[in-house]
Each structure stands twice: as C-alpha cells, then as structure tokens.
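JOB MANIFEST
job_type = single_chain_structure
chain_count = 1
residues = 154
[input]
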Amino acid sequence: WQIVWSFARPCPICSARMNGAAMLGNLLYRRVELRARDPGELGEYYGSVWGFDVEESRGVWSVRAGVTELVFAPATDDTDPFYHFAFNILERRFVDAKQWLSQRGPLLTDSDSGADDREFTTWDAHGCYVSDPARNIVELIADKHPLALGRRRR
C-alpha cells in the first residue's frame, strides 16, 4: 500500500479539483494527517474493516498503510471535514483489489453510467471507490505505467 494524491484531475465522484493544484503524476506521502469529527471511529474502521495496524495516542489515531502513516486527528472547530484520497495498487491486482474492497462496503457508482469503477484514458489508470464513516472518498487506483509505484521507466 502507498497513499498517493492526484492533483492533476478532478475527482470523478465528488467533482472537486484537488485544491486547484496543477501537478502531473503522483506524490508518495510518508505521513498524512486528516481531521475528523470522530477520529476513533475512523481508526476502528480502518483497523477492523481494512485490517490495517492501528495505534491511538491522546485521541489521535494512526493507521499504518504500507509506507504511509495515515493519521486521524480531532477537527479543530465545528466543521465535519471530509477528504478524497487514494491507495496506489499494482495494475495486475486491480480486479482482486476491487473484489476485496467490495467486501468492505458498497462501491460508489458513477451517477451517469452506474459503473462501479472508472477508466482514466488520459491518465492511463483506473480506480474504484468507497466511502468511509466520515464520508471520505477512498480510492484504489491502478496506474498502468511503472512510474505510479516510484520505479523509473526504462
């Protein structure tokens, strides 16, 4: 597992442009901190449903997802924040990963086509989505070229 965030395209599910940043390719994060109204609920969800290792310290929950530490901290105001983030997976494992994900909750579908996965022809990738208890959109994305997992093309 690695967490990546794509900034170059709008989200096909939530139609948001990722903070308006224009960047090609993916970034690998060692630590991602997200705010949540109920961090414990998310820690429990990613531990029990996704099977990640989870730690709690002073109301902050950390989930180990491969090389990335995904941290859920309490929201600092009365907002109820939500995010869209992605786990990069190997292209050859997409079908198995999609099946695995569908066993953890209903896959989000495209409102026009009803499809439960999405092909990105201009990005040479495809993905599928679920929503967690905080309404975060969680994506499994399979990039079809080796740069997606940090390897150089030869």
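[summary]
The mean pLDDT is 78.
The first strand starts at residue 2 and ends at 6.
exit_status = 0
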